């Protein structure tokens, strides 16, 4: 699976809103990311934080409410909807699992791949994931204030850029199942299909 989550020079480019290529996660980045998540978890703020992220998402990007037609996505109703609470808990624990394994590139990549395949079936794109990432970072700033410094923000930004790179690769494969094959592989696949059709 390559050196996606190790330190790399930035030869691989990711299309991001800022048009900056991610720099990879350093040991310090991993430490910043994990310490931020530990603060939320140990202080019992994970559910509250998750609710704030989704309120931000639904308010700033109202079209995302259409993903959950059976849920109460109005900011005033979310906390009374057991299904919405369950969704937030699942998403926050998924995020926590990413953070727990952000130093193990292959495991993290595998986790993101599974999540991407599930969400792409529901037409959640890489751009949507970038939007969600921006809501997470914005709410970390609001919740933690000065405890969430520039180095932590940079680490989380790199973390999500790497996450979205994996998601984007899976989206490309999902939209074009032959995109990851070489020309030889495509020719062989077409030959096999033609044989079966005869």
Automatic annotation (TrEMBL):
CDD domains: Mb-like. SUPFAM superfamilies: Globin-like. InterPro entries: Globin (IPR000971), Globin-like_sf (IPR009050), Globin/Proto (IPR012292), Mb-like_M (IPR044399). It comes from the Eukaryota. One of its GO terms (molecular function) is oxygen carrier activity. Keywords: Heme, Iron, Metal-binding, Muscle protein, Oxygen transport, Transport. It holds the Pfam family Globin. Residues 24-172 form the Globin domain. Belongs to the globin family. This is Globin. It comes from Plakobranchus ocellatus.
């Amino acid at each position: 699976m390559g050196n996606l989550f190790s330190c790399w020079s930035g030869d691989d480019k990711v299309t991001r809103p800022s048009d900056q290529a991610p720099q990879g996660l350093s040991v310090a980045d991993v430490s910043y990311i994990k310490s931020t998540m530990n603060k939320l978890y140990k202080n019992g703020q994970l559910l509250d934080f998750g609710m704030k992220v989704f309120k931000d998402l639904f308010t700033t990007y109202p079209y995302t409410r259409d993903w959950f037609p059976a849920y109460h996505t109005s900011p005033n109703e979310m906390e009374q909807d057991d299904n919405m609470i369950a969704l937030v808990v699942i998403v926050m624990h998924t995020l926590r699992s990413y953070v727990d394994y952000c130093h193990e590139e292959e495991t993290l990549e595998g986790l993101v791949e599974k999540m991407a395949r599930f969400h792409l079936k529901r037409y959640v794109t890489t751009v949507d994931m970038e939007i969600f990432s921006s809501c997470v970072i914005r709410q970390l700033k609001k919740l933690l204030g000065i405890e969430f410094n520039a180095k932590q923000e940079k680490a989380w930004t790199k973390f999500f850029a790497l996450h979205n790179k994996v998601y984007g690769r899976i989206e490309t494969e999902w939209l074009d199942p032959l995109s990851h094959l070489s020309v030889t592989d495509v020719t062989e696949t077409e030959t096999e299909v033609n044989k079966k059709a005869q």
